[in-house]
Design goal:
Layout lengths: L4 H15 L1 H8 L3 H9 L3 H12 L8 E10 L7 E10 L2 E9 L4 E10 L6 H15 L6 H12 L1
Antiparallel strand pairs: 1-2, 2-3, 3-4
Helix pairs in contact: 1-5, 1-6, 2-4, 5-6
Length: 155
């Protein structure tokens, strides 16, 4: 049975989420009220600075950036949910995605991905994404993390 496009998207989202989980954890340390204020007043440069500060310990400069857009879901009695448009650019891989930050978890959703000079084989492109994420990191993923990403992408 052949994989469908959504299967590749899921594998790629999982690889991206695994690769940037420390960044998501750093962003979740920021008070939600700060994100609310910056998004509501369109102070996107402030969010860009927070994202830069959260990524600089883990990724090479300019590989992960804030996409200057975000959204907030606030409901009475509910927990806040913040989503930020993000970009990943490295090794001719360009990923435009949304990071979702909630009280106890974070997630990613890929909106668009390009592989400049990519392969016709989607599995090759997924492997290239995983390699690009690993190469963009300042500290490589631990061997157990890298093998889990590779294993996940192979399924």
């Amino acid at each position: 049975m052949q994989k469908q496009g959504r299967d590749y998207t899921y594998e790629r989202e999982r690889a991206l989420a695994e690769g940037i989980k420390e960044v998501a954890s750093e962003l979740r340390l920021i008070d939600a009220v700060d994100f609310v204020a910056f998004i509501r007043t369109e102070q996107f440069a402030n969010i860009g600075n927070l994202v830069s500060s959260s990524t600089e310990l883990y990724f090479k400069p300019d590989t992960i950036k804030f996409g200057f857009s975000g959204d907030i879901d606030l409901q009475w009695g509910g927990t806040p949910s913040i989503s930020l448009d993000m970009e990943f650019h490295h090794m001719r891989v360009n990923v435009y995605f949304r990071i979702l930050l909630e009280a106890l978890r974070a997630g990613v959703e890929i909106d668009y991905i390009t592989f400049d000079g990519g392969s016709a084989d989607p599995d090759d492109n997924t492997r290239h994404l995983i390699e690009a994420i690993a190469n963009a990191r300042l500290a490589p993923l631990r061997s157990d993390q890298a093998s889990r990403c590779s294993t996940d992408a192979a399924h």
